[in-house]
Amino acid sequence: MLRYESETPEHEEFLYGLYAETRSDEPTFYGWREEDKDAFLRMQYKLRTRSYRLQYPLAEQRIILYEGNWAGALLTSESEDAISLIDVALLPPYRNRGIGTDIIKQVQETATARHKAVKLHVLTDNRARRLYERLGFIAKEEHFPYMSMTWRSPNQ
User: Tell me: the pLDDT tens digits for 106-126?
Assistant: First the structure.
């Protein structure tokens, strides 16, 4: 049911659409023409992509497939002591179905097998924060508007 594909150039437009979907409810877009909104979002997407590449040069981007359909994307980076969960995003039809929970648990299983922690940053008011807390992530630092969280296997 849940599989992953490594990112390829054919995924670029899907990844942009996924990014744009995650920003679709922002109030700053009220009254914007569609072409202006698209131009702004494409610029933001390119900047975010470059920023991630600079911050995490060894990051691995994977496309999340659910029942054979492109459902989202997962971006992780592995260091000597941790797996950084940089970004996980699902298209709306795949949200609130337990898929995000399964993805995070798989990352946790990988970290456990490799004797590593899982680290992430989340907006303090993002509802995904509750998911992370439910899965055992502990808040470490808060630099508004972000919070860093860490998970360690009970066996470590």
Answer: 999 999 999 999 999 999 988
